[in-house]
Input
Amino acid sequence: MSVEGTTSKTPRRPLKIERRERAVIRFAGDSGDGMQLTGGQFTATTAAVGNDLATLPDFPAEIRAPAGTLAGVSGFQIQFASEAVFTPGDAPDALVAMNAAALRANIGDLPAHSIVVVNVDSFKDIDLRKAGYEKNPLEDGSLDSFRVFKVELTRLTRAALKEVDLPTQSIDRCKNFFALGIMYYLYRRPIDVTLNWFAEKFKNKPKLIQANQLALRAGVAFCEATEVFDHVYEVPAAELEPGTYRNISGSQALALGFLAASQKSGLRLFQGSYPITPASELLHELSLYKNFGVVTFQAEDEIAAVGAAIGASFTGALGITSSSGPGIALKSEFVGLATMVELPLVVVDVQRAGPSTGMPTKTEQADLLQAVYGRFSESPCIVLAIRSPADSFEMAYEACRLSLTHMTPVMLLSDGFIANGTEPWKLPDVAALEPIDVKFHTDPESFEPYRRNLETLARPWALPGTPGCEHRLGGLEKSDGSGNVSYDAENHEKMVRLRAEKVERVADDIPELDVDGPQKGKLLVLGWGSTSGAITSAVRRARSDGHVVSQAHLSYLNPFPKNLGDVLSRFERVLVPEINAGQLALLLQGRFLKKIDSQTKIQGLPFGTNEILDRIVELSEAS
Amino acid sequence: MAQTTLTKKDFQTDQEVRWCPGCGDYAILASAQQTFADLGIERHNMVIVSGIGCASRFPYYVDTYGFHTIHGRAPAVASGIKIANPELSVWIVAGDGDAFSIGGNHVIHLLRRNIDLNLLVFDNRIYGLTKGQYSPTSEFGKKTKSTPYGSLDRPFNPVSVVLGAGATFVARSIDIHAPHLKRTLKAADGHRGTSFVQIFQNCNIFNDGAFEEIREKKLRDNNVLELEHGEPLIFGKNRDRGIRWAGPGVPEVVELGKGVSEDSLVIHDERGSMGYLMTLAGMKPPEFPMPIGVLRRIEARTLDAGIHQQIEEVSAQKGPGELEKIIYSGNIWTVGPVVGRR
Output
C-alpha cells in the first residue's frame, strides 16, 4: 500500500494501546462531504462490537449551503462506551475536520489535548477566507493545545484510488471514508461492517464499491504505515442487558410504535402529514409499510393533514398526524374539534427551535405549553413526552392506547434530538405487547353519541356504515347524552367540566412517577423529554462524587402522574432542567405551589452532562 | 342498489331546521333528501361533511352520518373519511366563502386528487352567518357591511377555478329549480371522482335577488341554458335561441329560424376542450344565458382507489406485513446472558 505523502518522521516502535471506558468523537465537514454517512458507519460498527452508544447529527438547514462556509458545516457526534451511555457526549475527545470551516465551527467545543484530524488539502487561502480565518490556524500556533494530525486527505485518497476508473470528482467524494479508516484505526474498530455496507449500497455500481473500499482500507493502511498515532484506544464492549438489539433513530422507533399499535388494536393506521423538518422522517418511514395496510396521506397543508386524520378516525381508523412547532400551531383548531367531537387522534410534535421558523434543524423543548394549553378556550388534551430515540416506540404505542381508550386527542412530544439521534434499542417481545382493546358501538337500541363510559367518561365510537347508529358530530356544543346541538348555559359548563375530567381520569390509567434514589430528602432532579440522558449521566456522576441526589423523569405531562404532588413535597429542592425558558417549572409551580429550581438552556442544543452536574453540586452544597 | 322502501322522510332528522324563512337552503335540502331517497343510498352508508356557514348546518338536517367540521376544512375531513372507507357515499356541503375563500386551497387539491365524493357549493355570493360581508364570489363594487363604498375585490368564477384545478365533474344548478337540481345531484352521485356542483342559492336577508334573472320562473327560460351532452346549445322559452361560434373561441347568441339552423350551433361536449369549457364558464346574463347542468364529465384515476390498489400491490409483492419481522430487521445483534460482545 502506498504511503506516499506522509510527513511523519516518527521511528517505528510497538503500538501502545490505551484502554478507555468511553470516547466521544465528532465528524465535521461540508454538508456535501458525507459526514452523516460516515458517522452512521462508525455507529453501525460500534454497535456491532458491542459498545453502548448514543449519536447526534447536527446539520445545517440548507441542503447545500455554499461549500466551504460556516453555514454549510455538517456534523455527527457519537459517544460509545464499555458502560451505559445516556447522551451523545459533551465534548469530543477527537474531531475530524474535513475543511477549515468545519475546524472553525467545532474547535471551540474541544477540551485541551483533544485529537484533531484535519484535511490539510482544504486549508488553502480560499478555504481559509471562506471559513473566516485571517491566518492559517494550522500554522499560527492557535491549535498548540490540541493534538493536531494534518493529513492530506484529498491527495492521499486520489493516490490510493488512482487505478480506479472514475472521474476525479467521484474519487474526491471517497475521502470521508479515508477519514473513517483513520478513526477505525485510532479506536481499533473492524472495517468489515462498512466494507459489507458498500457492497450492499452500491450493488449495481462495482466501481463505487471498489473506490470506497479502497479509500477505507487506505485510511487504515496510512495509519499503520506512517505510525501517525503514537498510541490508539481500546473501548471494550459494554455489558448490555441480555437481549436482541438494533441501533435505531427516534423517527424509526416512532414509526414502529405506531405500526405496532395499529397491529395490536386491529385498526388501520392513517397518517395525515405535511413535510416539515424534523418531522418528515416519520412520514418517510410509515410510507414504507404499505403491506401493513398503512395509509400515508401527504396533504396540501398542515391543516388538511390533521383534518384527514380526524376524518379517518371517524370511520374507525387509527388517525395520527405529525409535524413540528409551526405545523402544530396550524393544526390547533382541528385538535380543538377532535377534543369537542371526542374522537381518537394522536398528534406528534417533533419540537425544534423557534419561535417562527427559528432554527429548524436544532432541538428545543419549548412546545410544552403549546401542547398543554395551545388551543383556544377550554380544550384539554392528553400530553406525553418521549425521552430517547428507543423510547419513541413505547410512547407511540402508549399514545395510541390512551387516545383509543379515552376517546380524546393525545399530543406526543418528541424533538429534533430524539428524532435524529440513535441508540441501541433492546427489541420488545412482540407477542407479549399488551393488545389495545377497541370496541365499536353497533347496537342502535342503546346508542346515544354522548352517552359515556362511567369509568373513563369516554363516549361510544359508532362508525359510519353501522345501521341504526346514524348521528351527526360537529364543533357546536353538544347536549350531554344525545349529542344534539345545545346552547344551554348549564349544559355548556357541564360539558366543559366533563371533557376536562375525562382527561384528568387518565391519571388512573398511567403509572405513578418512579423516583430513583432516596424517596425523600434534599434534592430531586426532575426532567421530561430528551433531557433524560444528560440528567441521568449527571446524577450518576454526582452520586459517585458523594452527593445525595434523587432523580425522576416525567413521560406524562397531562395529566401528571397521581403521585407527583406527593413526590415534590418530599424534597427540599427540586431541580428541573429543560431546553426552554422554564415551561415545566411554570406548570409545576402553578399546580403544586412548589418552589422549583429551574435550569434552562435555549441554544438549539441539548444539555451537556457537566452543565447539569454543576447545578446539582451547587444545590447539593448550598443546602 | 335502488331500494323502493326509502322516502324523503327517511332522510329527515328530528332537529328543527334553523335557516331564515325564505332561504334557498330549504329548497336545496328538500331536493337533496328526495334525491338521496331516489338513489336508494342506505342511510348508514352515507356521510355528509360540512365546514362553517349557513350551508354547513346541512348535515344536522339529514338523517345519515354527518360531520359539521371547521371553517373551510370539510374537504380535508371528507378526504380522510373516503380514503379510510371507500365504501361510504360522501357528500360535502359548503358555502361560497367556505369553499372558495378560507377553504380554497383544500378545494383545489381535492379536485386535483379526484377523490370519489361529491362537493356541493351553495353559492349565494355573500357571508350570511356572519351577517352580510362580501364573499369571494361577490361582484366587483358590491356594497356590503364590510364594503360600504363598494368591494374592490374581483370575484372568483367557481366553475373556472375548479376547471383549472382539474375537476373531472363540473355542474351547476339552481336552488329552486327542483327537477334540474335533482337530476344534477343524481349525475354527481353517478360520477366516479370528485363531483363539483355549484348551486346558485338566494340569501333573502343579505343578498336578496342576486340571481333573480335565472331563478324567477318567468325570466329563467330566457336566461338559462340547460346543457345536455351531445345536444346543441339551445335556450329560450320557445327554444328559439342558440349559441354558435362567431370566431374561434368567441360565442354569440343567435335566433333560430331566420336563416340560422340548429346545425350551425355549438354542440355540448362534456369531454370538450378546456377552451370550450372556460368559454361556457364565462357566459352569463345579460349578454349570454347562464349555462347550467353538467359542463364537464371525464373519467380519471381517483386517489382513494389508487391508495388501496397500491396497498394491495405492495402487499402482493412483499407479502402481508409481519410486525415481528419488521422490528427484528436491520443491523441486529444479540447480547448473551453473560457479557456484551457477541
Remarks:
- The first strand of chain B starts at residue 46 and ends at 50.
